Amino acid sequence: MKQRVIRSIFVLFSLGFFIVASAQLPPEVIADKYLVQAEQLLEKKDYVAALDLMDKSLALQKEHGLTLLDEFYFKYAQVAFSTGSFQIAIDAVSKYLSRGRGSEFYKEALALLIEIEEGLEELEFSPEKTCDGKPLRSGCWMALTSHPECYFWEDEYYDGQTVTWSGECSGGFAEGEGTLVENHTSEYMGVRKIELTGHLQNSRMHEQWVIRVFHGAYGTVIEKGPYVNGKRHGIWAWLYGETTFSNFDSEVPYVNGKMHGQWVYYARDGRRMGGGSYVDGKQHGQWIEPFSDGTQW
């Protein structure tokens, strides 16, 4: 017991020393540390957290007049582009390229610039890109029935789909916080209604969203999780409540719009009841599926 107490005191002392030591680092070193941490988060595809750290580096630069590492603006552009912040990304990569052809990531930065420009072209509105006359499940600009001159980007539109938006429209595009209400015909469920509440950036879903899917007599499914630039990215919760679909809730991982990682089933009391892995949108390996009576297959 005495050894445990001594060890705990030592750990606390060491932690306190580390915090004090980190606080005493020069601002330029702290900014570089943020960059390294952001690169690690970028590898893990945690783009939002990476962008937050890069912004902290920029704040330190402005406060203390720092000179950031040569590769900073190239990395910043990568992270910003991954979160759908196209204007920030193109400004950052242009600043990096202005350093000249001798820059370490010159060719990679040129490739990134081309990719950003292609992304911006996709966001540009044109009559040819609206949903009129497009095949079902197309990605297209859809006119809002509540604001006929206002559009948002729909990755997969359905037969007879209508959409309203409770938030603002800026320059002919739905933006900011609000609720989308979709009514359409599903080939499996017939007519159904979906309420989606969250944030639109560049008229695409971004950050945290809550989605309620009303399936008529089948019940309502609630889905909660993050989007990055219009694609599901991160851990999503599927809550079935009192539906005829399942007696279990699910935790579902997404990467760039595809299921990827460990899917887990949970009983109403929180017990883990099964699941399995997805790789690039497809089930992979061994799965354990729970039956409604609690048994497993």
Describe the structure.
The protein is an alpha+beta fold and 297 residues long. It has six helices and 15 strands. The chain has helices at residues 2-23, 27-43, 47-64, 72-82, 86-97, 106-123; strands spanning 140-143, 151-154, 159-165, 168-170, 173-186, 190-201, 204-214, 220-228, 231-232, 234-239, 249-255, 258-259, 261-266, 272-279, 282-288. Strands 3, 4, 5, 6, 7, 8, 9, 10, 11, 12, 13, 14 and 15 form a 13-stranded antiparallel sheet that branches. It has a two-stranded antiparallel ribbon with strand order 1-2. A hairpin with a 5-residue loop joins β7 and β8. The longest helix is centred in the N-terminal third of the chain and has 22 residues, at 2-23. It is globular.
What summary fits the major beta sheet? 13 strands, antiparallel
Instruction: Indicate the structural class.
Output: alpha+beta
- Shape estimate: globular
- Supply the number of structural domains: 2
CATH 2nd-level architecture of the largest domain = Alpha Horseshoe
CATH class of the largest domain: Mainly Alpha
CATH superfamily of the largest domain: Tetratricopeptide repeat domain
Strand content: 25-35%
**Helical proportion?**
25-40%
Give the radius of gyration: 24 Å
Amino- and carboxy-terminal Cα gap: 46 Å
Average predicted local confidence, pLDDT: 84
Low-confidence stretches: 1-15
Q: What order do the helices and strands follow?
A: HHHHHHEEEEEEEEEEEEEEE
Number of helices: 6
